[in-house]
Amino acid sequence: MPNDHGSLPYLPTLRSRLISAGYLRSWLSDSLTRYARERIFDVLRKGILKGSLRIEDTDGTFDFGTATGGEPQVVMTIRSPDIWMRILTSADIGIAEAYMFQDCDVSSLKELFNLWLNNRETLFGLESGLSGVFARYSSLAMTWLGRYNPYMSKRHVEFAYDISNNFFQAFLSKEMMYSCPVWGDEENGVCGDLTVGPTPGDLEAAQQRKIQSIIRKARLRPGDRLLEIGSGWGAMAIAAAKLGCTVDTVTLSQEQLALVEERAREAGVADRIRVHLCDYRKLPKDFEHSFDALISTEMIEAVGKRYLPTYFQVIDWALKPDRATMVITSTSQPEHRHSEYQSDDFCRRYHWPNVYLPSATSLAGSVQEACPGKFVFTELEDHTIHYPRALREWGRRLEKNFTPKLVKELQERFPAFRGPAELEAFRRKWLYMFAYAEVGFARGYTTLPCWTFTRPENVSEVCA
């Protein structure tokens, strides 16, 4: 865990550690690796119907599928035979780990993920039957075995965010919003970086547009009191404080708390912002019915299906009973593939442990189930198409700013990074995630709604 600076800020799966150490190959002999390779090749021959993949390994070059319509061919160069057992035992996590641990190089991660989505119905045989059993077990375990209790929630936040503030500054915009911006015409829209190229200041402008949009949705006015669950690095709280609001913002990250307080002082609004290092289930008693608005930006994913009722009941308890608004954004699954039982995958394993992604309609239903008649669902805005450009920008910035100075800091905090392989796995983990998420949002495989709820009969304007 990150606060144990002698360890890695990620935890490879036991399966991955066994494969990397060579135990599986030495124990079960190389015949299992050959079987895994042959099975995967057979699935690729039958399963790639759109696009093409070239695999280069020590035995030669092998082509699968047929490139049509100008689609680029994806080239995967195999550096270690460990990749075959990784994929056979878990295709999603296995391919990610193979890239992270340099078992392979890929000509374009983005095109690899597009190839997968284009053929996912016919590539289902990549994994073994045993991996399906593990997937079903992990989905039940994440839903019901208490991994979202206050202690584990804090550990998950430390895992995801207490790496180094300077590390996040290496790829985020100046205000350090680690969430989806809203691109406008001034930045040439959601594809501006592809059509005219990225321009300095574009990401910052898009993030400020998102912040101001959410503040408007929350109907904040000077003198209002805002509760924010999920502080990030303070951009939303500082913007609301500059408007004239008083803000109580809640985080489980010691690193974030320190920087929010520092940045609030620099912005001259420290007297209007209080940062609380606590779980949302342990808010101060004097918060009861004290707030005019609640804002939670891409935090609710960490709550978990089991605790969503508690989460919304806490918000209901904290907001004023007659005049209050709640604005929530969250990565979500679209309705056609949403399930309350969600199994382990690359992002849950290596970035946000055990997150639960609601759908647009399921979250609205959860609010009403938890707090019947206490909130009116007034607006749903889809931010999905705005995310891919942000993820591309974050990836470009990280590659540019992964400097010797940053590496030295990471190695001091995490001595394991003094090993070149471990450091490169960490860097690749992030670049893989940016491309993985970019394609998911660009294809609508993953979505990002913004929900607004308010108290009954709390109209925004009186027109009568």
Keyphrases for this structure?
CMAS, alpha/beta, transferase, Rossmann fold, 45% helix, Nonspecific Lipid-transfer Protein, Chain A, methyltransferase, four-stranded mixed β-sheet, CFS1-like protein, S-adenosyl-L-methionine, 464 residues, single chain
CATH domain class of the largest domain: Alpha Beta
N-end to C-end Cα span: 57 Å
CATH 4th-level superfamily of the largest domain? Vaccinia Virus protein VP39
Strands across the major sheet, in which order? 7-6-5-8-9-11-10
Rounded to the nearest angstrom, the radius of gyration is 23 Å
Order of helices and strands: HHHEEEHHEHHHHHHEHEHEEHEHHEHHHE
Question: Could you say how many structural domains there are in total?
Answer: 2
Strand content: 5-15%
Shape: globular
Question: What value does the average pLDDT take?
Answer: 89
Tally of contiguous helical segments: 19
InterPro entries: CFA/CMAS (IPR050723), CMAS (IPR003333), SAM-dependent_MTases_sf (IPR029063)
Keywords: Lipid metabolism, Methyltransferase, S-adenosyl-L-methionine, Transferase
Organism: Polyporus arcularius HHB13444
Protein name: CFS1-like protein
Notes on the protein architecture:
Helix content is 45%, strand content 13%. The protein has 464 residues and is α/β, with parallel strands linked by helices. The protein has 2 domains: 127 residues, Nonspecific Lipid-transfer Protein, Chain A; 248 residues, Vaccinia Virus protein VP39 (Rossmann fold, 3-Layer(aba) Sandwich), CATH 3.40.50. A 7-stranded mixed beta sheet has the order 7-6-5-8-9-11-10, with helices on one face. Strands 2-1-3-4 form a 4-stranded mixed beta sheet, covered by helices on one side. The radius of gyration is 23 Å and the shape is globular. It comes from Polyporus arcularius HHB13444. This is CFS1-like protein. GO terms for molecular function: methyltransferase activity.
